[in-house]
Write the structure tokens for this entry.
Amino acid sequence: MKTKQKKYSIESTLIHGKNVTKKWDFSHHVVPPISSSCTFRLESTKRGALGFAEFAHHNDENAISARAPIYIYDRLGEPNKEVLEENLAAAEHGDVAVTFSTGMAAVSAAFGAVTGTGDEIIAHNILYGCTYSLLTNWYPRYKISTKFVNMKDSKNILRAITSQTRVVYFETPVNPTLELIDIGAIVKLVKNLNKKRAKERKIYIIVDNTFASPYCQRPIEQGVNFVIASLTKNICGFGTDMGGVVIGPKWSFDILLLYRKDFGGALAAKSAWPLLVYGLPSLATRMRQEIVTAHAVASFLENDSRVEFVSYPGLRSFPQLDLAKKQMKDYDGKFAPGSILYFVLKGKTPQIQHNRGEKFINYVAKNAYSITLAVSLGHIRTLIEHPSSMTHSAIPLDEQMKSGLNPGGIRLSVGLEKPADIMRDLGDALDNL
Ligand SMILES: *Cc1c(COP(=O)(O)O)cnc(C)c1O
């Protein structure tokens, strides 16, 4: 039995996991079997009572035991999810991971764990559309307010902070513009502020790492408190299952488990399994290839006279190239600028750029073989979409323009097809503008 996993790379760990895990004894299987049971046999009321007493008591030293957990009911915990959670924590270099049914369930759980009525959140002014909607349409009902600021300049956070601020929240690279937010600068700023704050008033930094994936960026290594991710994207990778995860410090484990138990967004065991068996083990290999292809496609578009600009953190023309090299790195420390790019077609006005972008995407939707018009990202199939009218339509158009989201912008999530095929389809659509 192989138990010396610590000596091996993260890439191998994501394939083999902990090998021998307390979460489940499946030592005669090579592949973790699918567990699909909503409820679990308890041989005595005593064992049942112990299971309930131990649930979400990880911070109570006396309750932690060296034996396998007592599984009670799927929403509280079950083997497939818990083995996956061990591997997700390893992938992001965090202490603990708790999975959820979707990325949005994970976003709500992260906020839910550290905020209450009267608290304030400071968020970057471009966010994933549903996160923006959660913060603007729902949290005001619970008197949790959000200030949106441009975090490209971390000083804007200082101006927005009050004694009620509990969370600084952002995505980097920013979806869909691919602009970066300086994780190190924000960590430094918040650490300084926290020195003067009581423990229960501390500000937590939460980063949505869906876009980069842990292969390209591990914000917790850089001092961030929580990472959330939609597992539906890069980590699943094949576009078959939805999921979400919060990765954070040890103390947050119990509250996240309680949140999942009571709000109910538990990841289905049948969805945990493909993430564990196909998604995480292939993450590094997929990302490595997608980065090479994204770079080739970005250069191809940048050199085309019909394209106004391309935003991809790996291009030499990328305005924040130094920052990209500093904070986007693979497990070996090599520059890893991700698999997503954003570009705008030429046009004298934003309206013309918008119309041409729409025509381009519609041409691709009808005629391309290797590119599919669809939302989502990080799949093995190359996906194209129009953020202004689709994923980011929850943000009012004037807000979009103010925050640098071009109404003609096109987002391309590069998959595993041959680079030449993707470029052929893009070139064909450009020729038919
Ligand atoms: C997709 C996505 C989410 C939400 O994830 P779901 O799994 O669709 O709920 C959150 N943040 C980002 C950046 C995303 O791309």
Observations:
- The mean pLDDT is 93.
- The first helix runs from residue 10 to 16.
- The chain has 14 helices and twelve strands.
